[in-house]
Amino acid sequence: MAKRLDISDLNIYYSDFLAVEGVTMAIEPRSVTAFIGPSGCGKSTVIRSLNRMHEVIPGARIEGRIALDGEDLYGREVDPVRVRRQIGMVFQRPNPFPTMSIHANVIAGMRLNNKRMSKAAADEVVERSLRGANLWNEVKDRLNRPGSSLSGGQQQRLCIARAIAVQPDVLLMDEPCSALDPISTLAIEDLIGELKQEYTIVIVTHNMQQAARVSDQTAFFNLAGVGQPGKLIEMDATEKIFSNPSKKATEDYISGRFG
Ligand SMILES: Nc1ncnc2c1ncn2[C@@H]1O[C@H](COP(=O)(O)OP(=O)(O)O)[C@@H](O)[C@H]1O
Ligand SMILES: [Mg+2]
């Protein structure tokens, strides 16, 4: 649990298009790393490369190295399905399986891996995961209702419960609050603060206040212009990035001068 990611000289392509160039960074365990930067600078592309979801797009590939506690995730004998289990992902729009029950949603990932789980074992995973996602008290009396019966904020916490059910090492979240109201957003932010005690968390956000509130480290990405690759401009302690960044482009972005 909670492993570190080391990214070196990462280039990411969509066919011939170099979307992200030359990213080198370390993502520390038991902490939250925020990715910020203007639309199109490659934040989603980078986060998807971390658990090998990028390569499911035809023609998509990477160069460079991404290591989880020293293991090259793109090594020739590495199973990408196993990587995606170790490095879970939560998306912008909550995407529970709508007709599946809340209970079945939580263990959906486990069923794929272990079809012969007993009812008692399944119930235990469901309770642990829903408690971990701060959702248990709200749903414990209606576990057999469909996932779609929940509010947007609850659905997003259900997706987080589904992601942590398989006990991953890293949780990736790509703008997890951008479809949520302010109250649900605060609930997710509180939850991220709790989850970081056990997991390595990477969150993409376009909300500066959110990055400042939830993250320990912030990485600022930028691109020189349309058709140019996105690059990591600077990464530092969140406090430093938001008070005294080293690069002028970072300062311009966080003070709202562009983006
Ligand atoms: N599936 C795709 N196929 C081709 N190009 C893509 C695809 N997804 C993203 N891109 C391109 O990669 C670049 C980075 O996009 P993205 O990672 O979505 O940026 P961000 O998340 O920072 O807004 C953009 O130029 C975008 O158009
Ligand atoms: Mg994006």
Automatic annotation (TrEMBL):
Gene3D superfamilies annotated for this entry? Answer: P-loop containing nucleotide triphosphate hydrolases (3.40.50.300)
Q: Which GO terms describe its molecular function?
A: ATP binding; ATP hydrolysis activity; phosphate transmembrane transporter activity
**InterPro entries in the record:** AAA+_ATPase, ABC_transporter-like_ATP-bd, ABC_transporter-like_CS, P-loop_NTPase, PstB-like
Q: Does the keyword Zinc-finger apply?
A: no
| Keyword Membrane recorded | no
Record GO biological process: phosphate ion transmembrane transport
- One Pfam family linked to the record: ABC_tran
Q: Please state every residue range assigned to the domain named ABC transporter.
A: 5-248
**One GO CC annotation:** membrane
Q: Name the keywords, alphabetized.
A: ATP-binding, Nucleotide-binding, Translocase, Transport
May I ask which residue range the UniProt record assigns to the signal sequence? none
Q: Which domain of life is it from?
A: Bacteria
| Cross-referenced PANTHER family | ABC TRANSPORTER I FAMILY MEMBER 17
Protein name (record): Phosphate ABC transporter ATP-binding protein
Instruction: Give the species this sequence originates from.
Output: Actinophytocola xanthii
Question: What lineage does the source organism belong to?
Answer: Bacteria, Bacillati, Actinomycetota, Actinomycetes, Pseudonocardiales
